Automatic annotation (TrEMBL):
Database matches in SMART domains: Flavin_Reduct
Keyword field: Oxidoreductase
InterPro entries with a match to the protein in the record: Flavin_Rdtase-like_dom, NADH-dep_flavin_reductase, Split_barrel_FMN-bd
Domain Flavin reductase like: 10-150
Organism name: Bacillus songklensis
Listed EC numbers: 1.-.-.-
The protein's name in its UniProt record: Flavin reductase family protein
Lineage start: Bacteria, Bacillati, Bacillota, Bacilli, Bacillales
Superkingdom, taxonomy of origin: Bacteria
Enzyme class: oxidoreductase
An MF annotation (GO) of this entry: oxidoreductase activity
Length: 159
């Protein structure tokens, strides 16, 4: 099977959208990702999958920490910034939570210490021990079939 068929099939799984952040030498880095999941309640563990060619890969390996910001439905532009989809300059001001950079007004911010790295083909699975969580009400930013979606109408949303 070819790569496009595989990608198209995986795109049929609707997901929320996150921004993963870390900090190395007082410099903040982020990337958009939908490869995120909870792993365990006791202990509290979450997992992110990061491509080995992504700049974020080596930064997380170095920092041994990451934060996950679960984006709300009004944060599509933020997702596009960290996915490299916007050509215009866009200044991101990070909020600090548990001494980590996170996206302000996200539905949830989760800070983690990497407790295990699992080699998985062209990605590494970073399992994080959750160190703190903050949440707020709102609707999620969704991604399905290669497009941002609205939870109410299930149609593509506009920026």
């Amino acid at each position: 099977m070819d790569d496009r068929l595989f990608r198209n099939a995986m795109g049929k799984f609707a997901t929320g959208v996150t921004v993963i952040t870390t900090e190395v030498d007082d410099e903040v880095y982020g990337m958009t990702a939908n490869a995120f999941m909870s792993v365990s309640l006791d202990p509290k563990l979450v997992l992110i999958s990061v491509g080995k060619k992504a700049k974020m890969h080596d930064r997380i390996k170095q920092s041994k920490t990451y934060a996950v910001s679960l984006l709300s439905d009004h944060q599509q532009k933020m997702s596009m910034v960290f996915a490299g989809q916007l050509k215009e300059d866009y200044e991101v001001i990070f909020e600090r939570f548990n001494n980590m950079p996170v996206i302000e007004d996200a539905l949830a911010n989760i800070t983690c210490d990497v407790c295990k790295e699992v080699d998985a083909g062209d990605h590494t699975l970073f399992i994080g021990a959750v160190t703190d969580i903050q949440i707020q009400d709102g609707e999620p930013l969704l991604f399905f079939d290669g497009k941002y979606r609205d939870i109410q109408s299930s149609t593509s949303s506009l920026v």
